[in-house]
Design brief:
Blueprint (H helix, E strand, L loop, with lengths): L37 H9 L5 E2 L14 E2 L1 H10 L9 H4 L4 E2 L11 E4 L9 E7 L2 E6 L13 E5 L8 E4 L6
Parallel strand pairs: 1-2
Antiparallel strand pairs: 3-8, 4-5, 4-8, 5-6, 6-7
């Protein structure tokens, strides 16, 4: 199975978070995380539940209605924490990693994709967290953050029977 050569996982980009001394933080980190496996990806992603859905957004910040993420911005920022660079497009992310044949073979941390338009173009991505559930930035272009309309990062099990594609992005420590 192909995997990505990620080298060290340390985030050395600097930012607003003081980090842990060895890791200066990136302004998007609510706490220290020791990366390693898919369960850690899921645990990190869960820290962002409640973050506003903002079309085109890439800022993980719970409780700020002016900052947020869209579906691919969410997966991009979560995986970035673990040294994986994903594009900010669900369609483009759907070609990263290796294919997984069906939800019964999915593992926590796998990327789930949907083609809501039925036109062959992937337009939504989520992270599988196990037990037939996903975590994702749920919304659309007309979402008004914190308008109590469900436009936010959340965990649910909706539309799991309509998944178009599943991909596994390998994390390799060298």
């Amino acid at each position: 199975q192909p995997s990505l050569d990620l080298g060290k996982y340390d985030d050395e980009s600097g930012g607003n978070n003081p980090g842990n001394g060895n890791n200066p933080g990136n302004g998007d980190d609510p706490g220290n995380t020791t990366p390693g496996d898919s369960n850690e990806i899921v645990a990190y992603a869960k820290k962002w539940v409640g973050t506003a859905y903002i079309w085109g957004g890439e800022t993980l910040e719970v409780g700020n209605p002016k900052k947020g993420v869209d579906c691919s911005g969410f997966t991009k920022k979560v995986f970035e924490k673990f040294g994986v660079s994903l594009p900010h497009s669900a369609h483009s992310q759907s070609s990263i990693g290796t294919a997984v044949n069906g939800l019964s073979n999915a593992q926590p941390g796998d990327l789930l994709f949907w083609d809501w338009g039925g036109d062959g173009r992937i337009d939504h991505v989520a992270i599988y967290i196990g037990n037939n559930q996903k975590i994702h930035a749920s919304g659309n272009q007309s979402c008004k953050p914190f308008a109590n309309n469900g436009c936010k990062v959340k965990i649910d099990s909706g539309s799991m029977n309509k998944i178009t594609k599943i991909r596994r992005v390998s994390l390799v420590v060298i």
